[in-house]
Amino acid sequence: MPKHRTYKVHFFVCTHQDDRTHSLIRNLFDEAEESFLDAKCLSGDADEHHQVRSIVRSAKGRVIKGVFGKWRNNVMPEQANAEGKEADVRLRPGYGLVEKNFFVYYTDQNLLLYQRNASGSHPSKFQAYFSQLAGSPIGLEPILTRDSYQRVLNGGEPKWVEISVQPPKDPDFYGDEWTSDAMRLLNGAGAHLARIRMSASRAGDAHLLGRIKDAVVDVARSGRARVARIRLEEDNEPIDLIADRIIESITVELNEKGRPNPDDIFAAIAALRDKRKDDLKTFFGK
């Protein structure tokens, strides 16, 4: 049995209407019971539930640690031996198969450090969960090694743009009208992934690219883009809104059951904030 396991940790800033300084999420935690936020059903699937649980707050409430749990009541796990025999694993009444994503949330910056788990929930589920609780859309904006979003938005005309994106089920997930219409078109065509590259001609069509510059940033911020690069007229090198994201790794020991100790995961995640403090200062501007 392996003695250690490695996880990826993604850095996000939780936004509300493009504001990074709101208090919506902190207020939700302040109003919640100590151990969990009310379970919510997402995507209309009555057999799959999500819940924020195991909440631990610092003395002044500025740091919140917790687990984003997903459990399913319609799945019965299987077990097998080396000879190929298989058998169902009987779950206790009222229990379901659970997968966890650990997170550490810093209320002063709306900074979220989210542990990825391939069997758990994509960050978009965490985003949808808190949007549902808040009654208003919450954004999870990937944090970059520098604030390239503003560099693109405040820069000049783009020379070319390249984007590869997986369309969401709900096109209205995006605030930008052009992006919503494009995602609706892709969904209608049954596309699972779309890749687009546009460049300006010598005749001076750069303004056409400028019209979708905000849309490219919108898609990159949503976390659904696999490629999002923009070359501005005044820059020699393209701005890569994906490669600039802060993603770290943690390695933790496993116990006799093959699972990590939650305290070890929380400690390893929290240590990453100090490790990337210079990048965070650059991004947040302080």
Short recap of the structure:
The protein is an alpha+beta fold and 286 residues long. It is 27% helix and 31% strand.
Following the backbone from N to C, one meets helices and strands in this order, namely: EHEEEEEEEHEHEHEHEEEHH
Record field, number of beta strands: 14
Which spans have pLDDT < 50 for at least 5 consecutive residues?
A: none
Task: Give the biggest beta sheet.
Answer: 8 strands, antiparallel
For the structure shown, list the relevant keywords.
single chain, 286 residues, alpha+beta, 2 domains, 4-stranded antiparallel β-sheet
Provide structural commentary.
With 286 residues, the chain is of the alpha+beta class. The chain has two domains: 4-143 and 245-284, no CATH class; 148-240, no CATH class. 27% of the residues lie in helices and 31% in strands. The protein has seven helices and 14 strands. It has helices at residues 24-31, 123-134, 148-154, 177-188, 206-222, 262-275, 277-284, and strands spanning 4-15, 40-41, 48-57, 63-72, 78-80, 86-88, 97-106, 111-115, 139-142, 158-165, 194-199, 225-232, 239-240, 247-253. The strands form three sheets. Strands 1, 2, 3, 4, 7, 8, 9 and 14 form an eight-stranded antiparallel beta sheet that branches. A four-stranded antiparallel beta sheet has the order 11-10-12-13, with helices on one face. Strands 5-6 form a two-stranded antiparallel ribbon. The protein is globular, with a radius of gyration of 21 Å. The mean pLDDT is 82.
